Structure formats: structure tokens, C-alpha cells
Amino acid sequence: MTRDNAVPTVLVAEDHNYDQMILKEVFSRAGIRADLRFVNDGEQMLDYLHRRGRFAEALSAPTPALILLDLNMPRLDGRKVIRMLREDDTIRHLPVIALSTSESIKHITEAYSIGINAYLVKPANIPDYVTKINSLWQFWMVAASLPVVETSPS
Predict the structure, then answer these.
(1) For residues 123 and 129, is the Cβ–Cβ distance under 8 A?
(2) How are beta strands 66-70 and 35-39 bridged, if at all?
(3) Superfamily of domain 9-142 in the CATH hierarchy
(4) Is the CB of residue 141 less than 8 Å from the CB of residue 149?
(5) Cβ–Cβ < 8 Å for 62, 9
(6) How far apart are CA 118 and CA 132, in angstroms?
(7) For residue range 6-37, what is the model confidence (pLDDT) as tens digits?
(8) Distance in angstroms (rounded) separating the CA atoms of residues 120 and 102
(9) SS3 81
(10) pLDDT for residue 50 is more than 70
(11) Torsion of CA 112, 124, 12, 78, to 10 degrees
(12) Which of 7, 71, 75, 107 has the fewest CB within 10 Å, making it most exposed?
């Protein structure tokens, strides 16, 4: 959680509008208060994290407490993004959770090997998704000790 117990920002890199809508619904049904910020591809995610382009304004890109990253995105996919993120000293500490439809052991192993903190297979139905997101939230935002994040961009 943030230093002043403000609603934490969750940056979601997801290129499908339908999946974005589902995730909003899942957070709502789980009763999770979060400031969900969506980007559509890996380039937008990096722009957000580095406060470039349309994210240059202070309020448009609060530092996320958690990142949910679709691994298969256009322009710059999640695998490349996580590699770049982990090489950057200013943002490498951010927890990143992979969201994927793939249950392939190969894909899961690859994700962990490049720096993903956790891998979540997108459930096929809303109740299961609510359960998984609630468990994820309880661990990362309640149980885990995370670095203090700034709440307003510099």
C-alpha cells in the first residue's frame, strides 16, 4: 500500500478492450479499491512508467504499486517489456504479475526466468477470476512488504 494509505494504483498493460472491461468488473466484484490505469501495449507501458508523451503530466501517471502485464501485446510484447523493466534501476523494483491465457509450462517458466514476480492464468469465468484476483491482492497488497511508492510523480 502507499505511504499515506491512498488507493493504490495498478497499471494494467492489456491490449483488448473486452479484457480491460472484464478486469474492471472483477476488481469491482472483489470489492478491491484500486486506481486501475490501462495501457494498450508495451510502448505505452514504458511511456507511462517513464512519464513520456501523453503521460508526462504529473497526475496522468502515478507510480503503480502493482503492474498486471499481458504477455501478448502488439508493438512491444510483455516479454520484451519485462526484460527492459528489469534492466532499469528506477523501475526494476515494481512487482509485475503476468496475465496470460496460456497454461504452458514453457511459457510460465520463461516468464519467471525473465523477471515476472508471479504468473496468473486468466480464468474462463468471472467467479474464478474474482477469486484469483482477490488472492493476488491479498498477497501483494496486504501480506507482502513492498517498497514505498511515490503517490505523485516528480
Answers:
(1) yes
(2) unpaired
(3) Response regulator (3.40.50.2300)
(4) no
(5) yes
(6) 12
(7) 899 999 999 899 999 999 999 999 999 999 99
(8) 9
(9) helix
(10) yes
(11) 40
(12) 75
Residues near 153 by beta carbon (within 8 Å), at least 6 away in sequence: 51, 58, 59, 61, 62, 63
- Is the predicted pLDDT of residue 5 greater than 70, yes or no? no
Question: What is the per-residue pLDDT for 72?
Answer: 82
pLDDT in tens, 103-143: 999 999 999 999 999 999 999 999 999 999 999 999 999 99
Average pLDDT taken over every residue of the chain: 89
Cell of 87: 534492466
The residues that bridge with 120 in the sheet, in sequence order, are 99
Enumerate residues 6+ apart whose C-beta is below 8 A from 1.
Answer: 8, 65, 141, 146
Contact of 9 with 63, CB cutoff 8 Å? yes
Asked if 153 contacts 132 with a C-beta cutoff of 8 angstroms, the reply is no
Quick one: cell of 111?
516468464
Q: Write the CB contacts of 111 (distance below 8 Å, at least 6 apart in sequence).
A: 71, 79, 82, 98, 100, 119
